[in-house]
Specification:
0% strand; 67 residues
């Protein structure tokens, strides 16, 4: 999956997700909003996974430097 540009922070993306959720909850089901919600939710999860991987790699590299 191609990730959204890093120029958008996770908090920005989560605020957008919250706003879409409010729109979905406020009215009748709208397929387009549901698709946007699912897409943005997947983007957030992918970013979090990538960030966790980077953190683990940095930690591992720091351990190597200490040896």
């Amino acid at each position: 999956m191609k990730l959204v540009s890093d120029k958008y922070s996770l908090s920005d993306m989560e605020r957008c997700l919250d706003r879409i959720a409010e729109e979905i909850a406020a009215g009748p089901p709208h397929a387009g909003l549901v698709l946007w919600y699912e897409w943005l939710e997947a983007q957030i999860e992918a970013r979090q996974k990538r960030d966790a991987t980077l953190d683990r790699a940095r930690h591992r590299a720091a351990q190597l430097i200490k040896k």
